Amino acid sequence: MTYDLYGFGNALVDFEIAVKEEELAKLEIAKGLMTLIDESRQSYLYQHVQGQIQKQTCGGSAANTVITARQLGLSSFYACKVANDETGRFFYKDLKEHKVDSTFDHKELPEGTTGKCLILITPDAQRSMETYLGITETVSSEEVHKPSLEKSKNFYIEGYLVAAPKARAAAIDARKYCQANQIPVSLTFSDPNMVSHFREQMKEIIGEQAIDFIFANEDEAMTFTESQSLDDAFEELKKYAKQFIVTRSEKGCVTFDGKSKEVLAGVSVKAVDTTGAGDTFAGAFFAARKRGLDFNKSAQVANFAASRVVTKFGARLSEEQVAEVETFIKDLS
């Protein structure tokens, strides 16, 4: 089978939890960021918030993107690592229900503990993530199924992989493989914390020559390029990617299609939960490009899809929202 989008990232089961602002301070949680924690810390937090869980889904940044792409008609593959426990089996079952192929179509689930992410959402719709990676911390080249990658049209790397040495090495190896076989490579920076703490390692994933595409939000772009303004960051990013998009939440995005810069307006909505907005953006962008829309029209579709997903709890488009995005694509076409 040929895949329109092959994603490589962490495999986590997400627990979406509604909390008040003061609870974050009480639990000593950094607002708006992803923080890696150990299992005992996560268990402690879980005991305090389990009665406030709104939703449980298979997640991870790139997982959300390949599922969005699949919802919008693309064939998708996800390279990842989960364990043969209740949480891991839930993750794999969720992927299969969304018709996303994965590593574990080709190998058995290993023993261990599947990673989990507590996503705490405050009334202002900001998400703060407390992540225990579990077995996904050991994801490696063994999980990158090369025969499937060889038949893929796009390779998409999750920036969170930069934190784990084996995962980072696997991402670099897969990137080199794709470049040698003319498979376009895209990278999402994923989180400002990742860029801040692993800037040089992120450069290693990109390599010495510019990759095909980078997705970044404004904070990530400025942190990675060590710039004081978005304009400066924009120019610096040209050294690292042939094309890129910098997202700006409700302000929309700034695009570079390899030739020119374009500022695109966002879609004003009442946000409930911003989890997965950037992931949905990327998945919708790939889908729109596959459907024949030009670069900036595809970014408009991505803006619209991201504006839909933030109006509810969860990092996935609902069936009704998928239909809205489909209509938006047809209208632009």
Layout of SSEs?
Blueprint: E1 5-8, E2 12-18, H1 21-26, E3 34-36, H2 39-49, E4 53-59, H3 61-71, E5 76-79, H4 86-97, E6 101-102, E7 114-121, E8 127-134, H5 146-150, E9 155-158, H6 165-180, E10 185-188, H7 192-197, H8 199-206, E11 211-217, H9 218-225, H10 230-237, E12 241-247, E13 253-256, E14 261-264, H11 277-290, H12 295-309, H13 319-332
Parallel strand pairs: 1-5, 1-9, 2-7, 3-8, 5-6, 9-10, 10-11, 11-12
Antiparallel strand pairs: 2-4, 7-8, 12-13, 13-14
Decide which structural class fits the backbone. Answer: alpha/beta
> What is the highest CATH level, the class?
Alpha Beta
End-to-end span in angstroms? Answer: 28 Å
The CATH homologous superfamily is termed Ribokinase
Largest sheet: 9 strands, mixed
As residue ranges, the low-confidence spans are: none
Number of helices: 13
- CATH topology: the name is UDP-N-acetylmuramoyl-L-alanine:D-glutamate ligase
Radius of gyration: 18 Å
Shape: globular
H/E series: EEHEHEHEHEEEHEHEHHEHHEEEHHH
| Count of separate structural domains | 1
What percent strand?
Answer: 15-25%
Average pLDDT figure: 95
